[in-house]
Known about the structure:
Structural class of chain B: mainly beta
Distance between the termini of chain B: 68 Å
Number of strands of chain B: 19
Number of domains of chain B: 1
Radius of gyration of chain B: 20 Å
Order of helices and strands of chain B: HEEEEEEEEEEHHEEEEEEEEE
Number of helices of chain B: 3
Oligomer: heterodimer
Structural class of chain A: mainly alpha
Number of strands of chain A: 0
Largest sheet of chain A: none
Amino acid sequence: MRGGALPPALLCAALGLCLASADGRAALLGLAALVVTASAVAIAPVPATRSDGVLLGCWASIIVNAAMVHSRRALNDKAALALSLNTGVWTGAVIALAPSNMDLLEALPLALCAWPAAWARRRGQSIVLKVLASWLIAVAVLAATLQFLPVTPGYLPDHTD
Amino acid sequence: MSCSRSLFIALVALATGVVGTRPGEAHDFWVQPGDYWVAPGMGTSVILLVGHGPYRQRSPIPVRRITRFEAVGPRGMRKDLRPSLQLRRPGDDGTVVFREPGTYLLVLQTDARAYSLLPAMRFNDYLRVEGLTPALLFRERAHRTNADGSEAYSRQAKTIIQVGAEPDPATPVTRPLGLLLEIVPEVDPYAEPRAKKLPVHVLYHGRPLSGALVKLTNLGHDANPIETHVTDEKGQAVFNAPQRGDWLLNVIWTEVAPASFDADFQTTFSSLSFGFSRHP
């Protein structure tokens, strides 16, 4: 949960779920904005000292994206673009801190879940998307909270300082 | 299924995974030079590493916590190398250069401001695996085996670098260098002819430490140590002397912290790394 491809992959998946309610053209534009922004930020020199803040931004963005899935209203064009740009920034920033920029290729395709999600939504199966979004929110809340707990979580090695 | 219910299930599943999985022993710290054997005047990179196997990583320690980083060389020569440290630059944590031939020890000490808080089960397990029996007994006597365990800890690391191919008759390797917890070989692992045994003694506050678990790990396959021994009443442990590859000796010791401390224990991690793989 500390960097690598997983947090940005979850973030891209959350964006895909929330773009499912956007107009098709807006979703396409959003995905393009995501790819361009994430690729640009991923090659930027992000200081390693900012890793905690970057991860927090990533988890917070997952929560925002996934929360939008629960909205009764469809995502408008401006909101779709704004969320895509925000997702691109945090995806790129986490990848910039990862050992390899190639992790981007593992994360970005998750945003393509927008198409099957839109299909499910059209068939009146929005509950499936809401369950997935709730799971993403739970993961993000827990991961963000663990950053601030003094106790070493079970999945992390101890005595690393 | 309602959203709140699915959220609850996901949280429980994730929390179970978080407390139910546990990385292996991953807390040893050492200094690893790019080359253990170098020619005079040639530089070698150094990397500060922590953890073994899949958990091996560059140490995130900030430079302000490093209180000593020096080379101890032939004829008692000492050189402060802290200006050479450039932590977390791509590829390494700095470069050191030795002009005079001989055997050198790189010595690194940190302050004791690192802090660890582990859940009770994991802390008890860690104490058991690392042979920190006095701490286990203390927790049993104090009926605190079910309490989380906290430590303030420091790092003490040495690495042996041979400059030039000639063995050094006045090697500093077999002399203690005043570390809080220190592994001191009784023979130089680089001396010719190579010894079959590698006896070491462990000093804590400059005095022999008995009952400490010393581990010898092949850094080429470092998920588990190759050989472990508990020091005798003279603080001595005897290992089979490695003849090739890169190696790490390490020991951990802890004592109950004063009541004024935020932590339960004060722990010291000490290591000695050496290697033959770059023999010229």
